[in-house]
């Protein structure tokens, strides 16, 4: 069943997100205001070598938590998701993927926000130099893929896009 959007306007916004009010009509004819968040799309990279995956240990100030994450970031205007994943990988880790292929795509909260998450995989990468993004992580490490299920169970990996990418990696392994 398809809902109809009769109009939409911004309640508040900035360069990263926009809180919107939508005039929607359900299939049964009920019409009402609905609120949603429009976010930019995100790209991430799962890079593996020798049964290890490249992860970043980082603090998220909003939740005041530390966890392992994939290199990721916003897809800039005019940039493909694959190009964004490669750029973020290099900027945040100093590693450059030889080739990225699509691993999985998700829409983490399609009922309330429209951001799409694109995850790419590389099975080879080369060290180019120190990360240019100095505020992203405390350390960057090659973590054994076999350790991932335990890390997830211990809540050492909690980011949605990271979980989606790593779980897909485990399913395919």
Characterization of this structure:
With 173 residues, the chain is an alpha+beta fold. The protein has 2 domains: 36 residues, no CATH class; 131 residues, Nucleoside Triphosphate Pyrophosphohydrolase (Alpha-Beta Complex), CATH 3.90.79. It contains 3 helices and 12 strands, in the order βββββββαβββββαα. The strands form 3 sheets. Strands 4, 5, 6, 7, 9, 10 and 12 form a 7-stranded mixed sheet that branches. A 3-stranded antiparallel sheet has the order 1-2-3, with no helix packed on it. Strands 8-11 form a two-stranded antiparallel sheet. The mean pLDDT is 95.
Can you tell me the overall shape?
Answer: elongated
Q: Helicity range of the residues?
A: 10-25%
Strand content: 35-45%
**What's the main sheet like?**
7 strands, mixed
Query: Per CATH, which architecture of the largest domain?
Result: Alpha-Beta Complex
What is the average of the pLDDT values? Answer: 95
Contiguous low-pLDDT stretches (5 residues minimum) are: none
Count of the separate structural domains: 2
Radius of gyration over C-alpha positions, nearest whole angstrom:
18 Å
> What's the helix count?
3
CATH topology of the largest domain: Nucleoside Triphosphate Pyrophosphohydrolase
State the end-to-end distance.
37 Å
Number of strands: 12
Oligomer description: single chain
What is the H-and-E element order? EEEEEEEHEEEEEHH
CATH homology superfamily of the largest domain:
Nucleoside Triphosphate Pyrophosphohydrolase
Structural class: alpha+beta
CATH class of the largest domain: Alpha Beta
């Amino acid at each position: 069943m398809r809902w109809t959007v009769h109009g939409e306007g911004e309640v508040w916004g900035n360069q990263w997100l926009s809180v919107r009010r939508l005039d929607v009509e359900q299939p049964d004819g009920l019409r009402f205001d609905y609120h949603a968040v429009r976010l930019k799309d995100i790209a991430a990279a799962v890079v593996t070598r020798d049964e290890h995956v490249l992860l970043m240990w980082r603090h998220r100030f909003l939740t005041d938590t530390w966890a392992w994450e994939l290199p990721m970031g916003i897809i800039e205007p005019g940039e493909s998701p694959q190009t964004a994943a490669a750029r973020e990988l290099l900027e945040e880790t100093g590693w450059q993927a030889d080739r990225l292929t699509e691993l999985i795509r998700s829409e983490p909260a399609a009922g309330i926000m429209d951001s799409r998450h694109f995850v790419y995989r590389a099975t080879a990468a080369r060290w180019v130099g120190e990360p240019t993004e100095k505020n992203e992580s405390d350390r960057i490490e090659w973590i054994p893929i076999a350790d991932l299920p335990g890390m997830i169970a211990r809540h050492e990996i909690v980011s949605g896009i990271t979980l989606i990418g790593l779980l897909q990696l485990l399913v395919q392994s």
